[in-house]
Amino acid sequence: MEFFRFMTFTLRLALTEQTVSIFVIFIWKRREISELLLDMSRILTWMEKRYSLRLRRIRNVSALLAFIWIGFWLGVHVIGYITFQIQEDLSTLFGFTRQARFLSLVGAQVPAYVDDIVGGATLLINTHTELVAATFVYSIIALMITGFTHVLQDLQKVAILPSEKEQVIAVQKACRLYLRFRTLTAKFNKCFALLFAIFFSRDVWSFLVVYAVALRIDKLQGPEESQHMFEYRKKKDFDHGRHDIIVGSIGLGNAALKHLLCLYCHITVRDIVMVLEELEDKIESQDVQAEVTEMLSKIQSCSGAISAGGVHITTESAMAVLGMLASYAVIIYQTRDAALGDQEYAKKTDLPQLAEMIRGLMQNTSTSDIKF
């Protein structure tokens, strides 16, 4: 199989496997997820006493953004599927039959509209499952970011508090809130580490497929292929490629949002460490310094970082992934150059055309000999 077609075929297969994996993970981890949501609810109820208006606004905005995010990508996917996959079938909806993708193992022939409905529904289920699962976990990460942000804001106000007692109490409250969200992050990683590993593989394949489809080279016209069939195949390949770009763009959009949220969560905890270190230098009270030092001892390098199969998503890991994708991009581009070179060589040494020319010359020579 040609390399660029293999990439798109692998992405389509990976999407189906991803959908099954998401359902399996949510069923397998249902108890841990329920406990996580209960803990989140308790913490938010406790926080609501202090940040009621801000939390209500954040939840309303998060729900609206989640609805817009899912609706936008589903709309793009449906429009892309109709435009690039079944536009031609709509003009002859009941006019012909073909082998369905899911029934191809038994060779069943079904009307084209049945094939389009089954294929479209499957793609829509894959996309919807991915978007809903991703938006669900992103909403939890956004709430954890809110908690760590409140810790950071409370610590930033410590230095301007008038009395030492108030400063000690403020640091203690911030420490308790931080510990609650640190525990929540650990439970989140326990529930969704495998899911994030699957999302990560989808991110990599999305980038590679979009890049590969953008650089894909059309096959040359075959010796037994008419010009009409060649143009038809070229158009179908082009439409399928554009639809694959849409599906890959959904993955890239989720990847960008996911990494932004995960990095922001971890960076917020790093900012907490910086504020605590500044408090250690600025505040002269030994009691406050003791509380600050104790809180610093409870923050680890990976605190606040989301885990993807045991690998924490931090700035360092994100840069490593970008370097890996850049390497893959160079390899794909070199593969394209090699394929272009092969095509140019094939054009110059078109063996079927050369054989036809030799056959014609031999026939002309035989005819001339007979006349002579």
Backbone shape: elongated
What topology, given as strand order, has the largest sheet?
Answer: 1-2
Mean pLDDT over the residues: 77
Which stretches of 5+ consecutive residues score pLDDT under 50? 102-106, 368-372
Largest sheet: 2 strands, antiparallel
Structural class: mainly alpha
How much strand content do the residues show? under 5%
| Total beta strands | 4
Q: Please, how many helices?
A: 9
Order of helices and strands: HHHEEHHHHEEHH
Q: In the residues, how many domains can be counted?
A: 1
Protein name: Gustatory receptor
Keywords: Membrane, Transmembrane, Transmembrane helix
Overall description:
This protein has 372 residues and is mainly α. It has one domain (1-321). Helix content is 82%, strand content 3%. The chain has nine helices and four strands, in the order αααββααααββαα. It has helices spanning 3-28, 30-84, 87-91, 112-156, 164-214, 227-282, 286-297, 315-348, 351-371; strands at residues 97-99, 109-111, 306-308, 311-313. The strands form two sheets. It has a two-stranded antiparallel ribbon with strand order 1-2. A hairpin with a 2-residue loop joins strand 3 (306-308) and strand 4 (311-313). Helix 4 packs parallel to helix 6 and helix 5 (164-214) runs parallel beside helix 7 (286-297). The two termini are 52 Å apart. Mean pLDDT is 77; it is low at 102-106 and 368-372. Keywords: Membrane, Transmembrane, Transmembrane helix.
